[in-house]
Design goal:
By secondary structure, the chain is of the alpha/beta class. Helices cover about 40% and strands about 20% of the residues. It starts with a strand and ends in a 7-residue tail after the last helix.
Length: about 210
Amino acid sequence: MPTLLYLHGFRSSPQSAKARATAQRVEQINQQRTRQGQPPLRWLCPQLPPSPREAMTLCHDLLGNIRGDDLCLIGSSLGGFYATYLAHSLQARAALLNPAVDPARDLRGQIGTLTAWHDPALQFNFTAQHVDELHALEVGDLRAPVPDPQRYLVIIAQGDEVLDWREAAARYRGAKCSVLPGGDHALSDYAQQHLDPVLRWCLNPASNDF
């Protein structure tokens, strides 16, 4: 049974627009697969803790022995960094949506008490230890192209107001990349323009939608 693991971004949650749209589409796909006598996709979209180490422990616990061709990851922003680590360590594939390349550098200025985007009443502490934990998850030299780029499908918006799209394009050189003119960090047109091609690639990496 194929497993899809969706990893949200920093301060985000499974309630993000992209996560919810993907969950709804997977439910529709599973209804169709059931009618065709196929096993359903296993959908995982956990709330990730602030600690990167704990977040990866949670993912490993959820996945158990699932790895390789039985697993595909979808990661947004910081979730794209996490998905790169998991794809590399589990020999799996990952679809990355405006992925963070060097979150330890980018998030150092966020150390302190923060609120969650989708629940401002929820506060958490982001610490210097968490930054060190991000460093520990880096795959190779962040200034060089990612190892085994064929594992990745990457959607990068040139209009990303949070991350430098050029850094992601360089990091994922050799991957199946779609560099979009304009756009934004949230990929606001994700559900309309990118969701179905992403899922088709997750289920069939030979897909030529990109």
